Amino acid sequence: MNVVSVVQNSRMSVWQYVVVGVCFLGNLIDGFELAVMGFALPQLPGDFATTAQKGWLAGSALIGMGLGALFLAPQADRYGRRSILILASALSTAGMIATALSPNVWAMFGVRILTGIGVGAVGTLTILVAQEYSSLKQRNMSTAMTTIGYAVGAFTAGSVGLILLEAFGGAWQGLFLAGSVLGTVGLIAMILLLPESLAYLVMQDNHRSRAEILKIAHRMHLHDVDPGARSAESTTDVGGGESKEGPFGKQYRTTTVMLTFGYTMVVAAYYFVANWTPQLVKDATGDVATGAMVGTIVTFGGILGAVVFGFLGMRIFATKIAWIMLAIAVVSQVVFALTLDGPFALIAAALLGMGGFAAMSSYMAATPPLYPTLMRGKALGSVVGISRIGSILTPIAAGYLVAYLTGVGLYLASSILFAMSAITAFCLWLRTRSHFEREGERRFSTSPTSLPHSDPNSVRLGNRLRFTPK
Protein backbone atom coordinates (compact mmCIF):
# COMPACT_ATOMS: atom_id res chain seq x y z
CA MET A 1 0.00 0.00 0.00
CA ASN A 2 1.20 3.53 -0.76
CA VAL A 3 2.75 5.14 2.32
CA VAL A 4 1.09 8.54 1.77
CA SER A 5 -2.35 6.92 1.71
CA VAL A 6 -1.53 4.98 4.87
CA VAL A 7 -0.44 8.14 6.68
CA GLN A 8 -3.49 10.09 5.51
CA ASN A 9 -5.97 7.42 6.54
CA SER A 10 -4.44 6.22 9.83
CA ARG A 11 -4.33 7.49 13.35
CA MET A 12 -1.27 9.64 13.91
CA SER A 13 1.66 7.97 15.63
CA VAL A 14 3.88 9.51 18.28
CA TRP A 15 6.59 10.07 15.67
CA GLN A 16 4.22 12.11 13.51
CA TYR A 17 3.44 14.33 16.48
CA VAL A 18 7.19 14.72 17.01
CA VAL A 19 7.51 15.99 13.43
CA VAL A 20 4.69 18.48 13.99
CA GLY A 21 6.36 19.50 17.26
CA VAL A 22 9.61 20.27 15.42
CA CYS A 23 7.62 22.37 12.94
CA PHE A 24 6.01 24.20 15.87
CA LEU A 25 9.46 24.87 17.33
CA GLY A 26 10.69 26.24 13.99
CA ASN A 27 7.80 28.70 13.84
CA LEU A 28 8.24 29.65 17.50
CA ILE A 29 11.86 30.58 16.81
CA ASP A 30 10.76 32.57 13.75
CA GLY A 31 8.28 34.54 15.83
CA PHE A 32 10.90 35.27 18.46
CA GLU A 33 13.53 36.31 15.93
CA LEU A 34 11.21 38.77 14.23
CA ALA A 35 9.55 40.25 17.31
CA VAL A 36 12.78 40.74 19.28
CA MET A 37 13.83 43.55 16.92
CA GLY A 38 11.07 45.72 18.31
CA PHE A 39 12.67 45.55 21.77
CA ALA A 40 16.15 46.20 20.41
CA LEU A 41 15.27 49.38 18.47
CA PRO A 42 14.80 51.64 21.54
CA GLN A 43 18.20 50.49 22.82
CA LEU A 44 20.11 51.43 19.67
CA PRO A 45 22.11 54.64 20.31
CA GLY A 46 21.52 57.70 18.16
CA ASP A 47 24.97 57.50 16.59
CA PHE A 48 24.23 53.92 15.49
CA ALA A 49 20.82 54.46 13.85
CA THR A 50 18.60 57.51 13.32
CA THR A 51 14.84 57.30 13.73
CA ALA A 52 14.37 56.98 9.97
CA GLN A 53 16.98 54.23 9.79
CA LYS A 54 15.23 52.37 12.58
CA GLY A 55 12.17 52.26 10.38
CA TRP A 56 14.20 50.50 7.69
CA LEU A 57 15.55 48.09 10.28
CA ALA A 58 12.03 47.28 11.42
CA GLY A 59 11.03 46.32 7.89
CA SER A 60 14.26 44.61 6.81
CA ALA A 61 13.35 41.14 8.12
CA LEU A 62 9.91 41.37 6.50
CA ILE A 63 11.60 42.11 3.17
CA GLY A 64 13.77 39.04 3.72
CA MET A 65 10.72 36.95 4.59
CA GLY A 66 9.18 37.76 1.23
CA LEU A 67 12.39 36.83 -0.58
CA GLY A 68 12.74 33.60 1.40
CA ALA A 69 9.18 32.51 0.71
CA LEU A 70 9.35 33.42 -2.99
CA PHE A 71 12.80 32.10 -3.89
CA LEU A 72 14.20 29.77 -1.22
CA ALA A 73 11.09 27.82 -0.14
CA PRO A 74 10.24 26.69 -3.72
CA GLN A 75 13.61 24.92 -3.89
CA ALA A 76 12.09 22.33 -1.54
CA ASP A 77 10.19 20.97 -4.54
CA ARG A 78 13.56 20.22 -6.20
CA TYR A 79 15.94 19.41 -3.34
CA GLY A 80 13.56 18.20 -0.63
CA ARG A 81 11.74 19.76 2.32
CA ARG A 82 14.27 18.66 4.94
CA SER A 83 17.37 19.99 3.17
CA ILE A 84 15.92 23.43 2.53
CA LEU A 85 14.47 23.65 6.04
CA ILE A 86 17.87 22.92 7.59
CA LEU A 87 19.55 25.44 5.27
CA ALA A 88 16.93 28.11 6.06
CA SER A 89 17.19 27.50 9.80
CA ALA A 90 20.97 27.80 9.60
CA LEU A 91 20.61 31.08 7.67
CA SER A 92 18.28 32.63 10.23
CA THR A 93 20.49 31.52 13.12
CA ALA A 94 23.60 32.89 11.42
CA GLY A 95 21.68 36.10 10.78
CA MET A 96 20.93 36.48 14.48
CA ILE A 97 24.60 36.06 15.38
CA ALA A 98 25.63 38.52 12.67
CA THR A 99 23.04 41.02 13.89
CA ALA A 100 24.56 40.98 17.36
CA LEU A 101 27.98 41.63 15.83
CA SER A 102 26.83 44.36 13.39
CA PRO A 103 29.28 47.33 13.40
CA ASN A 104 26.82 49.80 11.85
CA VAL A 105 23.20 50.24 10.85
CA TRP A 106 23.57 49.17 7.21
CA ALA A 107 25.43 46.01 8.14
CA MET A 108 22.56 45.25 10.50
CA PHE A 109 20.06 46.00 7.73
CA GLY A 110 21.78 43.46 5.47
CA VAL A 111 21.98 40.66 8.00
CA ARG A 112 18.38 41.24 9.08
CA ILE A 113 17.38 40.59 5.47
CA LEU A 114 19.45 37.40 5.65
CA THR A 115 17.61 36.44 8.83
CA GLY A 116 14.29 37.16 7.15
CA ILE A 117 15.14 34.94 4.17
CA GLY A 118 15.64 32.03 6.52
CA VAL A 119 12.52 32.87 8.51
CA GLY A 120 10.40 33.15 5.37
CA ALA A 121 11.44 29.72 4.12
CA VAL A 122 11.09 28.06 7.53
CA GLY A 123 7.64 29.58 8.09
CA THR A 124 6.47 28.30 4.71
CA LEU A 125 7.98 24.82 4.73
CA THR A 126 7.13 23.89 8.32
CA ILE A 127 3.46 24.21 7.41
CA LEU A 128 4.01 22.03 4.35
CA VAL A 129 5.89 19.31 6.26
CA ALA A 130 3.38 19.30 9.12
CA GLN A 131 0.56 18.75 6.64
CA GLU A 132 2.38 16.05 4.69
CA TYR A 133 2.99 14.08 7.90
CA SER A 134 -0.58 14.40 9.15
CA SER A 135 -3.68 12.33 8.67
CA LEU A 136 -6.49 13.98 6.74
CA LYS A 137 -8.51 14.24 9.92
CA GLN A 138 -5.71 15.98 11.84
CA ARG A 139 -4.24 18.04 8.97
CA ASN A 140 -5.84 21.33 9.94
CA MET A 141 -5.01 20.72 13.60
CA SER A 142 -1.37 20.15 12.63
CA THR A 143 -1.40 23.40 10.65
CA ALA A 144 -2.81 25.22 13.65
CA MET A 145 -0.20 23.69 15.98
CA THR A 146 2.51 24.88 13.60
CA THR A 147 1.23 28.41 12.98
CA ILE A 148 0.53 29.00 16.66
CA GLY A 149 4.28 28.66 17.18
CA TYR A 150 4.79 32.05 15.52
CA ALA A 151 2.34 33.76 17.89
CA VAL A 152 3.86 32.00 20.91
CA GLY A 153 7.35 33.04 19.78
CA ALA A 154 6.31 36.68 19.41
CA PHE A 155 4.58 36.56 22.79
CA THR A 156 7.70 35.00 24.32
CA ALA A 157 9.88 37.75 22.89
CA GLY A 158 7.60 40.34 24.47
CA SER A 159 7.55 38.51 27.78
CA VAL A 160 11.28 37.94 28.15
CA GLY A 161 12.63 40.91 26.18
CA LEU A 162 12.82 43.21 29.17
CA ILE A 163 14.31 40.43 31.30
CA LEU A 164 17.02 39.84 28.72
CA LEU A 165 17.80 43.56 28.49
CA GLU A 166 18.14 43.78 32.25
CA ALA A 167 20.31 40.65 32.34
CA PHE A 168 22.66 42.10 29.72
CA GLY A 169 22.74 45.56 31.28
CA GLY A 170 20.63 47.12 28.53
CA ALA A 171 22.92 45.84 25.75
CA TRP A 172 20.75 45.12 22.71
CA GLN A 173 23.25 42.52 21.47
CA GLY A 174 22.09 40.15 24.20
CA LEU A 175 18.65 39.88 22.63
CA PHE A 176 20.04 38.55 19.37
CA LEU A 177 22.56 36.27 21.04
CA ALA A 178 19.71 34.72 23.02
CA GLY A 179 17.79 34.31 19.75
CA SER A 180 20.79 32.62 18.15
CA VAL A 181 20.93 30.12 21.01
CA LEU A 182 17.25 29.36 20.51
CA GLY A 183 17.83 29.07 16.77
CA THR A 184 20.69 26.62 17.34
CA VAL A 185 18.39 24.43 19.43
CA GLY A 186 15.83 24.44 16.61
CA LEU A 187 18.49 23.65 14.02
CA ILE A 188 19.75 20.66 16.01
CA ALA A 189 16.17 19.43 16.46
CA MET A 190 15.63 19.56 12.68
CA ILE A 191 18.85 17.68 11.95
CA LEU A 192 18.14 14.95 14.49
CA LEU A 193 14.35 14.60 14.39
CA LEU A 194 12.98 15.89 11.09
CA PRO A 195 12.71 13.28 8.31
CA GLU A 196 12.20 14.04 4.65
CA SER A 197 8.59 14.43 3.53
CA LEU A 198 7.07 11.09 2.55
CA ALA A 199 5.01 12.76 -0.19
CA TYR A 200 8.23 14.17 -1.67
CA LEU A 201 10.04 10.81 -1.44
CA VAL A 202 7.17 9.01 -3.18
CA MET A 203 7.39 11.41 -6.10
CA GLN A 204 11.18 10.86 -6.41
CA ASP A 205 10.60 7.15 -7.07
CA ASN A 206 14.22 5.95 -7.04
CA HIS A 207 16.21 3.37 -5.08
CA ARG A 208 17.36 5.88 -2.47
CA SER A 209 13.90 7.35 -1.88
CA ARG A 210 12.30 3.89 -1.58
CA ALA A 211 14.90 2.88 1.00
CA GLU A 212 14.20 6.07 2.94
CA ILE A 213 10.45 5.43 2.81
CA LEU A 214 10.91 1.98 4.34
CA LYS A 215 13.18 3.43 7.03
CA ILE A 216 10.65 6.12 7.99
CA ALA A 217 7.73 3.67 7.80
CA HIS A 218 9.54 1.35 10.22
CA ARG A 219 10.13 4.25 12.60
CA MET A 220 6.41 5.11 12.46
CA HIS A 221 5.44 1.42 12.93
CA LEU A 222 3.70 1.29 9.55
CA HIS A 223 3.50 -2.18 8.00
CA ASP A 224 2.75 -3.60 4.53
CA VAL A 225 3.95 -0.41 2.87
CA ASP A 226 4.93 -0.56 -0.81
CA PRO A 227 7.65 2.11 -1.25
CA GLY A 228 7.16 2.14 -5.02
CA ALA A 229 3.39 2.64 -5.00
CA ARG A 230 1.94 6.03 -5.93
CA SER A 231 -0.84 7.60 -3.88
CA ALA A 232 -4.35 8.04 -5.20
CA GLU A 233 -3.81 11.80 -5.34
CA SER A 234 -0.88 11.43 -7.72
CA THR A 235 -3.27 10.24 -10.42
CA THR A 236 -5.60 13.23 -10.13
CA ASP A 237 -5.29 16.65 -11.65
CA VAL A 238 -5.32 18.43 -8.27
CA GLY A 239 -2.99 17.57 -5.44
CA GLY A 240 -1.10 15.03 -7.45
CA GLY A 241 2.38 14.68 -8.81
CA GLU A 242 4.71 16.85 -10.81
CA SER A 243 3.31 19.38 -13.23
CA LYS A 244 5.10 21.23 -16.00
CA GLU A 245 3.22 24.45 -15.26
CA GLY A 246 3.63 26.52 -12.14
CA PRO A 247 0.99 27.75 -9.70
CA PHE A 248 0.24 30.67 -12.04
CA GLY A 249 -0.15 28.36 -15.05
CA LYS A 250 -3.51 28.03 -16.79
CA GLN A 251 -4.75 25.11 -14.69
CA TYR A 252 -4.03 26.69 -11.32
CA ARG A 253 -4.02 30.43 -12.06
CA THR A 254 -7.48 31.34 -10.77
CA THR A 255 -7.03 29.40 -7.53
CA THR A 256 -3.56 30.87 -6.95
CA VAL A 257 -4.72 34.43 -7.58
CA MET A 258 -7.65 33.99 -5.19
CA LEU A 259 -5.44 32.49 -2.49
CA THR A 260 -2.79 35.17 -2.93
CA PHE A 261 -5.21 38.10 -2.99
CA GLY A 262 -7.27 36.84 -0.05
CA TYR A 263 -4.23 36.07 2.08
CA THR A 264 -2.57 39.38 1.22
CA MET A 265 -5.67 41.31 2.32
CA VAL A 266 -5.98 39.49 5.65
CA VAL A 267 -2.25 39.78 6.36
CA ALA A 268 -2.28 43.50 5.54
CA ALA A 269 -5.23 44.13 7.86
CA TYR A 270 -3.87 41.95 10.66
CA TYR A 271 -0.41 43.54 10.59
CA PHE A 272 -1.99 46.98 10.73
CA VAL A 273 -3.94 45.99 13.83
CA ALA A 274 -0.94 44.28 15.44
CA ASN A 275 1.46 47.16 14.79
CA TRP A 276 -0.72 50.21 15.37
CA THR A 277 -3.21 49.23 18.09
CA PRO A 278 -0.99 50.25 21.05
CA GLN A 279 -0.30 53.65 19.50
CA LEU A 280 -3.86 54.38 18.31
CA VAL A 281 -5.45 53.31 21.60
CA LYS A 282 -2.90 55.41 23.49
CA ASP A 283 -3.77 58.41 21.29
CA ALA A 284 -7.50 57.86 21.89
CA THR A 285 -7.30 57.29 25.65
CA GLY A 286 -4.16 59.21 26.58
CA ASP A 287 -2.94 56.15 28.50
CA VAL A 288 0.15 54.25 27.34
CA ALA A 289 -0.64 51.29 29.62
CA THR A 290 -4.10 50.88 28.09
CA GLY A 291 -2.64 50.84 24.59
CA ALA A 292 -0.11 48.17 25.57
CA MET A 293 -2.80 46.08 27.28
CA VAL A 294 -5.13 46.17 24.28
CA GLY A 295 -2.24 45.27 21.97
CA THR A 296 -1.44 42.27 24.18
CA ILE A 297 -5.09 41.19 24.08
CA VAL A 298 -4.99 41.23 20.27
CA THR A 299 -1.88 38.99 20.41
CA PHE A 300 -3.60 36.65 22.85
CA GLY A 301 -6.61 36.58 20.52
CA GLY A 302 -4.25 35.40 17.77
CA ILE A 303 -3.14 32.44 19.87
CA LEU A 304 -6.79 31.66 20.61
CA GLY A 305 -7.55 31.89 16.89
CA ALA A 306 -5.00 29.19 16.04
CA VAL A 307 -6.54 26.89 18.66
CA VAL A 308 -10.09 27.56 17.41
CA PHE A 309 -9.03 26.87 13.83
CA GLY A 310 -7.41 23.60 14.85
CA PHE A 311 -10.60 22.27 16.44
CA LEU A 312 -12.95 23.56 13.76
CA GLY A 313 -10.62 22.25 11.06
CA MET A 314 -11.37 18.64 12.01
CA ARG A 315 -14.97 19.17 10.88
CA ILE A 316 -15.12 22.08 8.44
CA PHE A 317 -13.30 23.07 5.26
CA ALA A 318 -10.38 25.43 5.87
CA THR A 319 -11.76 27.83 3.26
CA LYS A 320 -15.15 27.85 5.01
CA ILE A 321 -13.48 28.58 8.35
CA ALA A 322 -11.66 31.47 6.65
CA TRP A 323 -14.75 33.40 5.60
CA ILE A 324 -16.57 32.70 8.87
CA MET A 325 -13.62 33.94 10.94
CA LEU A 326 -13.17 36.95 8.68
CA ALA A 327 -16.83 37.88 9.11
CA ILE A 328 -16.22 37.81 12.87
CA ALA A 329 -13.09 39.96 12.38
CA VAL A 330 -14.99 42.58 10.36
CA VAL A 331 -17.76 42.93 12.93
CA SER A 332 -15.26 42.95 15.80
CA GLN A 333 -13.12 45.62 14.17
CA VAL A 334 -16.10 47.89 13.58
CA VAL A 335 -17.18 47.49 17.21
CA PHE A 336 -13.63 48.07 18.37
CA ALA A 337 -13.30 51.20 16.21
CA LEU A 338 -16.46 52.68 17.66
CA THR A 339 -15.42 52.08 21.28
CA LEU A 340 -11.58 51.94 21.60
CA ASP A 341 -11.99 51.78 25.38
CA GLY A 342 -13.98 49.89 27.96
CA PRO A 343 -15.09 46.26 28.23
CA PHE A 344 -16.66 46.09 24.77
CA ALA A 345 -13.41 47.23 23.19
CA LEU A 346 -11.43 44.56 25.06
CA ILE A 347 -13.80 41.80 23.98
CA ALA A 348 -13.78 43.09 20.41
CA ALA A 349 -9.96 43.21 20.42
CA ALA A 350 -9.76 39.55 21.47
CA LEU A 351 -12.29 38.49 18.83
CA LEU A 352 -10.50 40.60 16.22
CA GLY A 353 -7.18 38.89 16.94
CA MET A 354 -8.89 35.50 16.98
CA GLY A 355 -10.71 36.00 13.68
CA GLY A 356 -7.72 37.46 11.86
CA PHE A 357 -5.21 34.80 12.93
CA ALA A 358 -7.67 31.93 12.40
CA ALA A 359 -8.29 33.21 8.87
CA MET A 360 -4.56 33.36 8.12
CA SER A 361 -4.18 29.80 9.39
CA SER A 362 -7.11 28.75 7.21
CA TYR A 363 -5.52 30.14 4.05
CA MET A 364 -2.25 28.39 4.88
CA ALA A 365 -4.00 25.08 5.54
CA ALA A 366 -6.04 25.24 2.34
CA THR A 367 -3.15 26.02 -0.02
CA PRO A 368 -0.88 22.90 -0.18
CA PRO A 369 -3.62 20.26 -0.80
CA LEU A 370 -4.79 22.17 -3.88
CA TYR A 371 -1.50 21.62 -5.74
CA PRO A 372 0.63 18.69 -6.92
CA THR A 373 3.27 17.45 -4.47
CA LEU A 374 6.17 18.90 -6.45
CA MET A 375 4.48 22.27 -6.83
CA ARG A 376 3.44 22.84 -3.22
CA GLY A 377 6.61 24.60 -2.10
CA LYS A 378 6.41 27.04 -4.98
CA ALA A 379 2.67 27.59 -4.56
CA LEU A 380 2.77 28.18 -0.82
CA GLY A 381 5.94 30.26 -1.20
CA SER A 382 4.24 32.45 -3.80
CA VAL A 383 1.19 33.04 -1.62
CA VAL A 384 3.26 33.82 1.47
CA GLY A 385 5.93 35.82 -0.36
CA ILE A 386 3.58 38.10 -2.26
CA SER A 387 1.53 38.68 0.90
CA ARG A 388 4.62 40.22 2.52
CA ILE A 389 3.93 43.28 0.36
CA GLY A 390 0.79 43.89 2.39
CA SER A 391 2.49 43.29 5.73
CA ILE A 392 5.23 45.79 4.82
CA LEU A 393 3.20 48.52 3.11
CA THR A 394 0.12 48.66 5.36
CA PRO A 395 1.90 49.73 8.59
CA ILE A 396 3.97 52.22 6.57
CA ALA A 397 0.88 53.63 4.86
CA ALA A 398 -0.84 53.95 8.23
CA GLY A 399 2.09 56.05 9.43
CA TYR A 400 1.31 58.60 6.71
CA LEU A 401 -2.49 58.38 6.97
CA VAL A 402 -2.54 58.92 10.73
CA ALA A 403 -1.98 62.63 10.04
CA TYR A 404 -5.23 62.76 8.08
CA LEU A 405 -7.48 60.12 9.65
CA THR A 406 -8.49 59.41 13.23
CA GLY A 407 -7.98 56.02 14.80
CA VAL A 408 -11.64 55.26 14.17
CA GLY A 409 -11.23 56.08 10.50
CA LEU A 410 -8.12 53.91 10.16
CA TYR A 411 -9.78 50.91 11.80
CA LEU A 412 -12.90 51.25 9.67
CA ALA A 413 -10.75 51.53 6.54
CA SER A 414 -8.72 48.43 7.41
CA SER A 415 -11.93 46.49 8.10
CA ILE A 416 -12.57 46.80 4.36
CA LEU A 417 -9.44 44.69 3.79
CA PHE A 418 -10.84 41.99 6.09
CA ALA A 419 -14.15 42.17 4.19
CA MET A 420 -12.44 41.80 0.81
CA SER A 421 -10.57 38.76 2.10
CA ALA A 422 -13.84 37.31 3.45
CA ILE A 423 -15.52 37.62 0.06
CA THR A 424 -12.52 36.02 -1.62
CA ALA A 425 -12.50 33.15 0.90
CA PHE A 426 -16.23 32.56 0.31
CA CYS A 427 -15.68 32.35 -3.45
CA LEU A 428 -12.68 30.10 -2.90
CA TRP A 429 -14.78 27.82 -0.72
CA LEU A 430 -17.37 27.48 -3.48
CA ARG A 431 -14.62 26.78 -6.01
CA THR A 432 -12.64 24.18 -4.06
CA ARG A 433 -15.04 22.33 -1.77
CA SER A 434 -15.59 19.60 -4.36
CA HIS A 435 -11.85 18.86 -4.24
CA PHE A 436 -11.90 18.38 -0.47
CA GLU A 437 -15.02 16.23 -0.77
CA ARG A 438 -13.21 13.96 -3.25
CA GLU A 439 -10.24 13.87 -0.91
CA GLY A 440 -12.55 12.73 1.88
CA GLU A 441 -14.07 10.07 -0.35
CA ARG A 442 -10.59 8.65 -1.06
CA ARG A 443 -10.05 8.41 2.66
CA PHE A 444 -13.29 6.59 3.37
CA SER A 445 -12.90 4.23 0.42
CA THR A 446 -10.00 2.55 2.25
CA SER A 447 -10.93 -0.25 4.62
CA PRO A 448 -9.95 0.72 8.17
CA THR A 449 -9.03 -2.83 9.06
CA SER A 450 -6.23 -2.84 6.49
CA LEU A 451 -4.52 0.25 7.85
CA PRO A 452 -1.99 0.44 10.69
CA HIS A 453 -3.16 2.50 13.65
CA SER A 454 -6.73 2.31 12.31
CA ASP A 455 -9.73 2.50 14.58
CA PRO A 456 -12.94 0.62 13.74
CA ASN A 457 -14.83 3.71 14.83
CA SER A 458 -12.94 5.94 12.40
CA VAL A 459 -15.37 5.32 9.54
CA ARG A 460 -18.32 6.33 11.67
CA LEU A 461 -16.38 9.39 12.81
CA GLY A 462 -15.26 9.99 9.24
CA ASN A 463 -18.81 10.12 7.95
CA ARG A 464 -19.33 13.04 10.27
CA LEU A 465 -16.23 14.67 8.83
CA ARG A 466 -17.11 14.46 5.17
CA PHE A 467 -17.53 18.22 4.97
CA THR A 468 -20.84 18.03 3.17
CA PRO A 469 -21.87 21.67 2.61
CA LYS A 470 -24.97 22.69 4.49
Oligomer: single chain
Bulk shape: globular
Share of β-strand residues:
under 5%
Q: Give the name of the CATH architecture of the largest domain.
A: Up-down Bundle
Uncertain residue ranges: 234-242, 446-470
Largest sheet: none
What is the domain total for the residues? 2
- SSE-based structural type: mainly alpha
Describe this structure in words.
The structure is a single chain. By secondary structure, this protein is mainly alpha-helical. The protein has two domains: 1-230, Growth Hormone, Chain: A (Up-down Bundle); 249-457, Growth Hormone, Chain: A (Up-down Bundle). The chain has 17 helices and no strands. The chain has helices spanning 3-9, 14-40, 51-72, 76-79, 81-100, 105-132, 139-167, 173-193, 198-204, 207-219, 253-285, 288-312, 318-339, 343-366, 376-401, 407-444, 458-464. Helix 2 runs parallel beside helix 7 (139-167), helix 11 runs antiparallel to helix 14 and helix 11 (253-285) runs antiparallel to helix 16. It starts with a helix and ends in a 6-residue tail after the last helix.
